[in-house]
Design brief:
This protein is mainly beta and 137 residues long. The protein contains two helices and ten strands. The chain has a seven-stranded antiparallel beta sheet. The longest helix has 4 residues. The N terminus is likely disordered.
Length: 137
């Protein structure tokens, strides 16, 4: 990643909405996340994380975090999942045009809880994680 910016654009976040699409950008770490402001509102817990809440589906949100890259393991293997999720499945993917990993894990709670889905990509000395936050048990 250049010191200036890394544009992370996912169809989920940047897809035009039925209303007028308002493209917005929010910094996270040294990266910039592009998102559709008509679909998402942004909360900033810290300089290295964002929480995007759906304006349409109450309870739906995406968490974006930047943290130091893990030493000696893939970003998917180092991802922190809630205690009630089983061993994740990790597959190759792309994120913002960069090599990434897709992580999916099922909850041990019950079948009514959807799987947790996340993406991570290493850029320079940082890992960028995007997680679809599923409710707890």
């Amino acid at each position: 990643m250049s010191a200036a910016r890394l544009a992370i654009a996912l169809a989920l976040l940047a897809a035009p909405s039925a209303t007028t699409a308002k493209a917005e950008e929010a910094p996270v770490g040294a990266a910039v996340l592009a998102y559709d402001a008509a679909r998402w509102s942004v909360e900033r817990p810290s300089e290295s994380s964002l929480r995007l809440r759906s304006r349409r589906d109450e309870g739906a949100f995406v968490v974006v975090e930047a943290r130091p890259a893990p030493a000696g393991e893939s970003c998917g293997a180092a991802m922190r999942l809630p205690f009630h999720y089983r061993t994740p499945r990790i597959a190759a993917a792309t994120l913002g045009g960069r090599p990434a990993e897709r992580i999916e894990a099922r909850s041990g709670c019950r079948s009514a809880v959807p799987p947790a889905v996340a993406y991570c990509a290493v850029s320079g000395a940082m890992v960028y994680e995007l997680r679809v936050a599923a409710p707890g048990c």
